[in-house]
Design goal:
heterotrimer; B: mainly alpha; 14 helices; 77% helix; 0% strand; elongated; C: mainly alpha; MetI-like fold
Chain lengths: 299, 300, 263
């Protein structure tokens, strides 16, 4: 991570938040006895890419008033990989959709890349990957990938080059001219990731992208996602209900609990990078799993 | 099977017709809300103030008024003897009410008889095609091809075979309703959950038992879809059949009135045919509700 | 492939054999009056079809052409109405009940009335064919436009796509299967409508020679049956044509994928 002095000045207020987070972390760690250190200078140097302040989300259904999210405040730093983890109904997907400006909160502020969520969407600051690949059946793989570029009016030759480059990145060389149905579920999801990366976004929002895949495919794609992240250096917000997946991928895990949906813990993942498949079997990994599981039971 | 697709899609029309007929207010509005920003607003205060009812009603009344004050006549340069006024049509209905009623009954009889025979034949073909897929499948294709044959070409032949009584129209209707039933029922019997089929096998159930406990039950929603399609198709078949070789019925009266330039009477035939067609459809739909309470399309 | 084609050919062949046999039986054993009119020999009909193929082709072409023009106009109007209904709730509320009701009404019954109003065979053929095409196309196209699932729309929303782009890149392609099922329902109906008008009085078309040969009586029975067959073939051809166009325009649909193998 770069340490840029001008950023440090700007992010005074952010530093305070970080101290707060640090305290929370320290508390969690002292509670559970997990060893881990937070490098303060490093955290303070990060500027917030996504910031949520007192966000509240209410739904009106025919029968009841549902409070989906209650007073959620969080910061995600530039270049960070964070997971939103929780059981179904905890509002983790809602939270992601707020960041994507697919829904508007009923209270609080959402700031994405220094702009309001809406402006960030209009400026194409993020790419999004849904639970299902959402590929358009009538488009070949390469044309699915270049869809956002097409909408932005990028020239065709540039688009085609970009598609090939991205297919290379996600390990799907030679599939450019196939139709989506000719690909397996895992491959389709990789196409969806390539599509999300096509306009080189600062942020990647991923809503349980691998939850429909089998365990083996999922673990392989986890590793591939990290290597892609390593190359593109974007901020990733990853929604999941799998504790091991969140630990393996993330720098930090935001633990959410339901009724009403709220942020109940933030857990640092001190596993070194680059992460390897062997780490899944390390004692530290299991300790983290136990720790996060505890934080659910405490709720 | 290529021809499968002809009838495969007709159910939509039938089912949407069903929705609109039973609950025109809610179902026409229940599109997926595609705009994620849109929140669902609390529902209407009164059923009759709903635009879903008011708007088409108003439009219909407006249309009739414009017609009555001869706006269309001026617009398209038509004479009153070409396009009779609604009041004249209403008068024709009043004047010939008993005749029209008996002819409607006659035409409806042809339609119902033909539809029952045709649907029964279609069902048998579907059963055969399901039981012996390799050889029965060919019959499905042939029946689907029959579906594309213009009804009007059938009329003279059926007339030769069955004379000019009810029989020939019933035969036309039979021919036109067979395909929809055969293809839909086949789809219903074939589209059985493979696991449900495995369950039957685990019970060591033979072919007849699989049909009795599983396939026929499973095909019922499809069968009723076909019956609804056929309700409409049978009215068309009967009326068109009467155009050429008949001395009774709405179709006969219709084409005859046009020939002797009694336009209002011709129009009154159309009005009655429309009413009969809708009634027939609604009755079939009512039966569907009685017979398949368990199906998801019947849950609110 | 062979598994399906072979039984079909056996069926067709068997049907023709039974036809020929019954025809012979009616003529020589049962000695029914007008036996050849009721069920003529297949070989005689085939010979007539061959002999008069020029005339039949020309008149059939006239029918097909008129039906086609009406069909195209009706289809375009149907698509436009469907798009309007998908864009505006008011238009939908106005038109949808009538579109649905029109499906329950014997539309073809209108043929004599329209002929009575227009008194022009060309125009009334086109109007009837267009009218018959209009509603199935509009309803199925509307269903297609609506069939787009929410995540696909959200994806467009996340790209900040303009409304026209959402239609052009997403809703229209997604609606193509619906549109084609409407077109495939409507195409044989349009041909039927055109023939119906011809039977009521026209100069050209397969319906005209059908009627003429019917009135000439038993001596023209083979020609009459030939016209019936041509009419049937026109109906089927219109359907096949639509299926072909569908394969070319929207080849990605599940039905067109090779079975087995990939799964």
């Amino acid at each position: 991570m770069l340490v840029n002095p001008t950023w440090m000045k700007e992010s005074n207020r952010y530093a305070r938040t970080c101290v707060m987070l640090y305290n929370i972390n320290k508390k969690i760690k002292s509670d559970s006895g997990v060893k881990g250190e937070l490098d303060m200078s490093l955290v303070a140097a990060r500027i917030p890419e996504i910031q949520l302040q007192n966000v509240e989300m209410r739904y009106q259904t025919d029968t009841a008033d549902v409070l989906a999210l209650h007073q959620v405040s969080l910061d995600i730093a530039k270049g960070e990989f964070v997971s939103l983890l929780g059981p179904s109904g905890c509002g983790k997907t809602t939270l992601l959709r707020l960041m994507a400006d697919l829904i508007t909160p009923t209270g609080g502020d959402v700031t994405v890349a220094g702009k309001s969520a809406r402006e960030a969407r209009l400026a194409q600051k993020y790419g999004i990957v849904f639970q299902s690949p959402v590929l358009y059946d009538w488009r070949k793989v390469k044309h699915n990938i270049t869809l956002p570029l097409e909408l932005m009016g990028v020239k065709k030759s540039i688009r085609e080059d970009k598609a090939l480059e991205l297919l290379d990145l996600v390990g799907l060389q030679g599939f450019a001219d196939k139709y989506p149905w000719q690909l397996s579920g895992g491959m389709q999801q990789r196409v969806a990731i390539a599509r999300a990366l096509s306009m080189e976004p600062e942020i990647l929002l991923m809503d349980e992208p691998f939850s429909a895949l089998d365990e083996f495919t999922r673990e392989r794609l986890n590793e591939e996602l990290l290597s892609v992240w390593n190359k593109v250096q974007s901020t990733i917000v990853f929604v999941t209900h799998s504790i091991p997946e969140s630990i393996f991928l993330s720098d930090r895990v935001f633990v959410l609990s339901p009724h009403p949906g709220r942020l109940s813990a933030i857990v640092d993942i001190p596993l070194p990078r680059p992460r390897t498949a062997e780490m899944r079997n390390s004692p530290q990994f299991f300790e983290l799993i136990a720790h996060i599981r505890d934080s659910f039971e405490g709720v | 099977m290529e021809s499968n697709t002809t009838v495969r899609d007709i159910p939509f029309i039938a089912s949407s017709g069903k929705e609109a007929a039973t609950a025109p207010i809610t179902s026409t509005n229940n599109e997926i809300t595609t705009d994620p920003d849109k929140r669902r607003s609390p529902r209407r205060p009164s059923k009759w103030l709903n635009p879903g009812v008011i708007l088409p009603l108003l439009a219909g009344v407006l249309f009739l008024i414009l017609w009555e004050v001869q706006v269309f006549h001026k617009l398209f340069d038509l004479k009153k003897y070409q396009l009779p006024l609604p009041s004249a049509i209403a008068e024709a209905i009043r004047d010939h009410f008993s005749l029209l009623l008996s002819y409607t009954g006659y035409t409806l009889t042809e339609a119902v008889v033909g539809m029952l025979i045709g649907s029964a034949c279609g069902l048998l073909i579907a059963l055969a095609a399901t039981a012996w897929p390799r050889w029965g499948g060919g019959s499905l294709t042939l029946v689907a091809a029959l579906n594309a044959v213009p009804i009007v070409a059938l009329a003279p032949i059926m007339n030769l075979w069955f004379g000019d009584g009810i029989g020939s129209r019933a035969a036309i209707v039979t021919a036109t309703t067979m395909a929809a039933m055969a293809i839909n029922a086949y789809k219903g019997m074939a589209a059985v959950d493979p696991l449900a089929l495995d369950l039957m096998h685990s019970y060591a159930a033979g072919k007849p038992a699989v049909f009795r406990y599983l396939r026929i039950q499973n095909s019922l929603p499809y069968v009723f879809t076909a019956l609804k399609i056929n309700a409409t198709a049978s009215m068309i078949g009967a009326i068109v059949g009467e155009f050429f070789f008949s001395s009774r019925g709405l179709g006969y009266l219709l084409s005859n009135s046009i020939k002797v330039a009694k336009m209002p009477l011709g129009w009154s035939c159309i009005v009655l045919a429309a009413i009969a067609g809708v009634l027939f459809y609604l009755i079939v739909e009512r039966l569907e509700k009685v017979f398949i309470k368990w199906h998801s399309s019947q849950r609110s | 492939m062979r598994d399906r084609v072979l039984p079909l050919f056996v069926w067709i062949f068997g049907l023709l054999v039974v036809w020929e046999a019954v025809s012979w039986w009616l003529l020589n054993v049962a000695k029914t009056p007008l036996a050849q009119s009721k069920l003529p020999y297949v070989h005689e009909v085939a010979a007539t079809l061959w002999k008069y193929s020029g005339t039949l082709l020309k008149e059939g072409g006239a029918t097909f052409g008129n039906a086609g023009v009406g069909f195209l106009i009706g289809a375009v109007a149907g698509v436009v109405l469907a798009v309007l209904m998908s864009l505006s709730k008011t238009i939908e509320q106005l038109a949808f009940p009538y579109a649905v009701a029109s499906q329950m009404i014997p539309i073809l019954g209108l043929a004599p009335i329209i002929y009575g109003i227009v008194r022009d065979e060309q125009v009334s053929r086109i109007i009837i064919s267009g009218y018959i095409t209009f509603f199935p196309v509009a309803l199925n196209m509307l269903r297609g436009l609506r069939s787009v699932d929410l995540p696909a729309v959200e994806l467009m929303h996340s790209y900040a796509a303009k409304p026209w782009a959402v239609y052009w890149k997403l809703r229209f392609p997604a609606a193509l299967p619906g549109l084609f099922s409407g077109l495939k329902i409507a195409a044989p109906l349009a041909v039927t409508g055109a023939i119906l008008v011809e039977l009521m009085g026209a100069q050209h078309g397969i319906g005209v020679i059908m009627l003429r040969n019917l009135y000439y009586g038993p001596s023209h029975t083979y020609m009459f049956w030939s016209t019936v067959l041509v009419g049937a073939l026109l109906g089927m051809a219109s359907y096949w044509l639509m299926s072909l166009v569908e394969r070319l325009v929207a080849p990605w649909q599940p039905e067109f994928r090779p079975k087995g193998g990939s799964r």
